[in-house]
Amino acid sequence: MNNTQIERNTNHCLSTSAARWGSLACDDETAWSPVRDLWDIPAGLTYLNHGGYGYAPHAVIAAKSRHFAEISANPMGVFCHGLEDRLLPIRDTIADLVGAGRGDLVLVENATNGMNIVAASIKLKPGDEVLLTEHEYGAVFNIWQRRCQESGATLVTADMPWPVESDDQIVDAIENAITERTRLLVFSQITSSPAVRLPAKRICSIARDRGVLTCIDAPHAPAVVDLDLDTLGCDFYTASCHKWLCGPVGTGFLYVRPEHQALIKPSVVSWGRMKPAKPEGWQDWFTWIGTRDLSGFFSLPVAIDVLSQIGWDNFRRRSHYLVQAARQRIEELTGMQAMVPKQQTFDSDTFVPMIAMPIPTPVAAAFDLRARLHAEHKIEVPVYAIGDQTYLRVSAHAYTTLDEIERLVGVLRREFAGQRLPRPSRVPFCPTLASAGLQQPLVATV
Ligand SMILES: Cc1ncc(COP(=O)(O)O)c(C=O)c1O
After folding, report:
1. The CATH number of the domain where 361 resides is what?
2. Does 251 lie in the same domain as 334?
3. pLDDT tens digits for 303-312?
4. CB neighbours (10 Å) of residue 265?
5. 219 CA distance to ligand 1 centroid (A)?
6. Does ligand 1 come within 6 angstroms of the Cβ of 111?
7. Phi, psi dihedral angles at 162 (to 5 degrees)
């Protein structure tokens, strides 16, 4: 499909969607079928890894191509005549979307970039502790491991409950790991491989009471969580827009609480603002960071528009329904239960659009299974180890269908045929990071 066709289809879908879609029943496959048409998922591909790499709707792809063409064809027009007038309203739109003050957020490439900026900016000294949960993303471990090595601070990991039975368990695990030396707590709002939502507000409040700064790693939160960063209580918050928000790759943001903004150092130092203007506040340093491709940021409003057309609540309820369907079917197939509490009914405060399902594949065969699902069945789904147990993580966005979940389960049924499946039970507890003697994070990167 060429760009003109994509844009024509997009306009068609968006204009009809605005007229047609009110509240969509989460289990009505027919009603959801035109929503899938907002994406251009290749025929035959079952894409169940939105949590890894978001699939952009074709309106977003078209907008990005259009903006890239414009930047390439008219660089002076884009960069020198009115760049700030164009870019800064997008920053404000994102701030409004996530409930942050407009002066408290900057656009960055992704959550990783935001986390690096925090790590480079925060003052640490020998004896300080940086506390991460053992379920943090591998790259985030690397960032803080390096920062601690440079500064003489110590990286400490909190053992996490697994299976997870309640928020209280999570809060207790983190609180128990805080010491007098803890300077900063880094945690995911929704973890990657375990796919667990942490009670961020409670955790921030406890950390604040104990005099500990908080940095939330949140690439999975935009579009999933009703965000109100002004009241969440964190000090730093970093996210990507390419996952559940369906923005283009290379778009994200960093929120910094006002009292820390003067400390923040951009990872790339440039003019800050377009000359002859000079940077005045902390945000200005993030506007001009060299001549770069801004087409992704320019296209972000389209992603927000697509999700608004579908309906944020529609998307979340549909995703919840499909994730629960996957959970139930895979549990029935394997006899192994998911490690998070059952969520029979939708609850926007705990909703997670993906689930990690234990499967009876040996850890050593996990990579092969993933490769086979991709190569032989055109199913994209991550298969990975947490401790000594293999998991498969199913993501569901608005384009996902029940048929795709059934297809995955059918293929798994054939895969597991002939294997002795465990009797219905909880899978064993995984060894914690500390007891496993691991230096690396316990969870795999998916
Ligand atoms: C919990 C978590 N943190 C950080 C990242 C890194 O996100 P990005 O590559 O968009 O910076 C991921 C990516 O999957 C993630 O799941």
Report:
1. 3.90.1150.10
2. no
3. 999 999 999 9
4. 12
5. 6
6. yes
7. -160, 105
